[in-house]
């Protein structure tokens, strides 16, 4: 992306097409979906988000990366994103959630150094992925938004962007086994 796409071009010309109609000041009623006969309905849907990736949610589940709830007693962002996935993907995630996690297996074994090292390497890889995502967001969204009239930097999925991504990254690091048991 960095080789061929200028951050200002992405922010001003491409990103608006990825945004949804939920939590957008300019679209207080959301987006009107016309059925072709001047009838339809207004919908407030989130825009595209990394949280809609089934694969990332599977990794979070099997590695026991806990993103918690949003504090309002409602489903957290990651749970809400499941509603945007194909039904088969949601069912697959439900099956994964019923299984024992890799972390549970690792922690149930005697202190086997190689297994913990491998588990922590998987956590580190997820942490690196989330760090890279955060740096791309900062370059392509945060910096360009500071040059525009935006009051609040929100992700296309409607989250308060940088703090949300930092929290997801920090939650990832917290899943390391070496945080529970010292490495040998």
UniProtKB/TrEMBL annotation:
Keywords: Heme, Iron, Metal-binding
Entry protein name: Indoleamine 2,3-dioxygenase
Entry's transmembrane regions: none
The organism's place on the tree of life at top rank: Eukaryota
GO cellular-component term (any): cytoplasm
Family: Belongs to the indoleamine 2,3-dioxygenase family.
Residues the entry annotates as binding heme b: 133
Single GO biological process annotation from the record: L-tryptophan catabolic process to kynurenine
MF term (GO), any: indoleamine 2,3-dioxygenase activity
Database matches in InterPro entries: Indolamine_dOase (IPR000898), Trp/Indoleamine_2_3_dOase-like (IPR037217)
């Amino acid at each position: 992306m960095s080789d061929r796409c200028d951050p200002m071009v992405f922010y001003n010309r491409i990103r608006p097409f990825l945004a949804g109609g939920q939590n957008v000041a300019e679209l207080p009623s959301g987006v009107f979906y016309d059925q072709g006969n001047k009838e339809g309905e207004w919908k407030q849907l989130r825009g595209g988000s990394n949280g809609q990736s089934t694969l990332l949610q599977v990794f979070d589940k099997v590695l026991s990366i806990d993103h918690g709830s949003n504090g309002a007693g409602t489903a957290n962002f990651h749970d809400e994103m499941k509603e945007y996935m194909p039904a088969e993907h949601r069912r697959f995630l439900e099956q994964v959630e019923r299984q024992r996690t890799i972390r549970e297996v690792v922690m149930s074994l005697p202190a086997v150094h190689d297994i913990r090292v491998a588990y922590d390497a998987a956590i580190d890889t997820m942490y690196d992925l989330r760090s890279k995502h955060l740096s791309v967001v900062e370059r392509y969204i945060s910096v360009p938004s500071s040059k525009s009239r935006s009051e609040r930097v929100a992700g296309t999925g409607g989250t308060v962007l940088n703090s949300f991504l930092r929290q997801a990254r920090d939650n990832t690091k917290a899943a390391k086994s070496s945080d529970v048991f010292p490495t040998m």
